[in-house]
Amino acid sequence: MKILLTGRNGQVGYELERSLQGLGELVAVDRSIMDLANLDRVREIIRQVRPALIINPAAYTAVDQAESESDLAMRINAEAPATMAEEAKKLGAALIHYSTDYVFDGTKPDSYAEDAAPNPQNAYGRSKLAGEQAIQSSGIPHLILRTSWVYGTRGKNFLRTVQRLAQERDELRIVSDQFGAPTWSRTIAEATAHMLAKMQKGADVRGGQCIAEKTWQDYAGLYHLTAQGKTSWCGFTRSIVEQLDLPRKPSIVPINTSEYPLPARRPQNSALCSDKFMQAFCKLPDWESALRLCLAP
Ligand SMILES: NC(=O)c1ccc[n+]([C@@H]2O[C@H](COP(=O)([O-])OP(=O)(O)OC[C@H]3O[C@@H](n4cnc5c(N)ncnc54)[C@H](OP(=O)(O)O)[C@@H]3O)[C@@H](O)[C@H]2O)c1
User: Fold this and answer.
1) Mutational pocket test of ligand 1: of 6, 16, 31, the residue with most ligand atoms within 8 Å of the beta carbon
2) C-beta 215 within 6 A of ligand 1
3) What is the reported pTM?
4) Quick one: pLDDT at residue 206?
């Protein structure tokens, strides 16, 4: 099965390129090859590669910047996936796409299941929701995997920021009234690989390891895929700092969202329930165990 993977230099894309080895013939591209802001280029690359499956972790992820670049965020997060779906339809290909907990408004006291009504509070969330809807209405076989609070040892993320600030400062003032599930990029990639392996197993073998139409009918749809449990940014910070080997650790001071104003509004509780994914495909680790593994030397 020929797989076109976008965003190979992103947190999730980088891990996917490694976890998906052996599951098909992988063509991994980055922004220099396929700029998602250029829809003609998106079409051109898909027509050249002719994949059986497109996996799209590439996205405009600068949540605050999206407030002032909402058109660009919409092009990359909604119009580009819509174009991928359109081209996939012509090829008879499928699409796996990633989305976000920020499609929710965060007012729910417990975790969000897939059928909860979205109500994004910022431009990034609106663009990601529009991307989901474009794929859903395209009629192609697809999987949309919503994840949250992604971190890893590469790229720009909360873990890396805390690691740096913990060395530079005596005190870290961190928001303690927003809740979610920090999710290691590798967890997302490995779970995606398990999912694909399960879908390939027992599928009709036509021209390689193509996933049968029946399998797509059984599994296609929207899933939440995050680490288990939830915490606040402050709780996440405590756990990171506990595991850092530093001569002197900073004190961690909990603050409210209102004390750290940012351009984009964030949901207060964006914990997602991943039971549907776990029942269909594989178990997901709790956030603290995954963090320990990520930070293990
Ligand atoms: N990060 C999070 O906390 C988070 C939370 C929930 C959901 N998600 C979703 O999870 C998925 C993976 O996110 P991530 O954490 O891996 O994001 P990331 O580390 O920010 O990576 C995003 C990737 O998209 C690429 N990209 C951005 N604009 C592009 C363009 N115009 N053309 C081509 N590529 C472009 C980036 O390329 P460059 O390397 O060239 O910049 C980067 O490789 C996304 O769908 C995201 O919305 C992320």
Assistant:
1) 31
2) no
3) 0.96
4) 44
